[in-house]
Design a protein that fits this description.
It contains seven helices and no strands. By secondary structure, it is mostly helical.
């Protein structure tokens, strides 16, 4: 990474922890050595603190491009329209949205926790259904 190539948007993403590990590490290394970059980061932080009102800032702050948890669950189960599935795949894999990746991990974790309960219910139902057929 070269200091001059670091954009304002990358600094915003750095503050929001929305970059890849490699990008975060690269910016951190540059910040240690560059007073000018630290000053630019301070300006970006001040913009965020005073609630920048540009269209891009509102879009990032409100996460308008992020899918809902229901859409992420549908993505996980493969039940979405192809266009929506493609967008979410792009959002997760190419953009690497940390918030959505965390939501997806949470959904996977909750589903894994509920699997034993589903198996137990199915087993109880099957045993009960067998008794009903015998009568």
């Amino acid at each position: 990474m070269i200091e001059k190539e670091i954009t304002r948007e990358q600094l915003h993403a750095y503050l929001e922890d929305a970059l890849s590990d490699a990008e975060m590490s690269g910016i951190e290394k540059l910040l240690r050595d560059s007073e000018q970059l630290r000053f630019r980061l301070k300006q970006v932080r001040e913009e965020q603190d005073r609630g920048e009102h540009s269209l891009g800032a509102i879009w990032r702050r409100e996460r308008l491009s992020c899918p809902s948890r229901e859409q992420l669950s549908g993505f996980l189960h493969g039940i979405l329209e192809p266009d929506v599935h493609g967008y979410i795949d792009f959002h997760l894999k190419t953009i690497g949205c940390a918030s959505c990746l965390a939501n997806l991990d949470d959904i996977k974790e909750k589903q894994a926790e509920s699997e034993p309960q589903k198996k137990r219910r199915r087993k109880i139902f099957q045993s009960s259904a067998g008794l009903l057929k015998a009568n």
